[in-house]
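User: Can you predict the 3D structure for this chain?
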Amino acid sequence: MGRRRKTEKDEVLIDLVETRDSAQSFLEKNQFKVLGGIGLIALLIGALVAYFLLYKTPRESKAMSAMYKAEQQFDRDSFALALENPGGGFDGFLDIIDNYNGTKAANLSKYYAGISYLNLGLFDPAIEYLEGFRAKGDLLPITKLGALGDAYSEKGEFDQALSFYQKAANTASNDLLTPYYLKKLALLYEKQGDKENAAKYFNRIKEEFPESEEGSQIDKYLARY
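Assistant: Here is the predicted structure, written as structure tokens:
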């Protein structure tokens, strides 16, 4: 009887056996390294879970609770009190930034602090805190950029102000905020004698946001050109 030809199926089976044997040999020779690696991964996962459950989450919760009184004072336009001494033993925004660094509350407090300093006429610290604020969502990136435009405009740094107003108007399309900052942009161009750009942005309000508050009054501005 002749020898049976080795089929493709036989070769596959041989390859599988060789792979299994190689893997088994590797595990036997390196079992302590493999087990050590698995143990290290498990340890890291456990440490991360403990960090979030025992430290980060409770700290985030505590920081948000600490903001309560400062937010109240901010809503009352008591900006100086909101920054440093909101009362009742609560932290002001500046203390929350220092004491809860890395939390969402500390990040949001930078925005509150920036707006508070802006309203107090202290434009350099307003810019510092607003630039440090990590803005997310639909509205906060626009209001952050617009507030920076306001701060630079108040300082008389109009090129910087124009840049931030442009960013605020182009970051996202929002029926309330976008025409508001387009109007500020147009008025600042007008103040600098740049009628072409002023008309450009007034016309954009008319075309894109005719139903907005700014759009309802836009013709009186366009009548100047």
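The first helix runs from residue 8 to 66. The radius of gyration is 31 Å.
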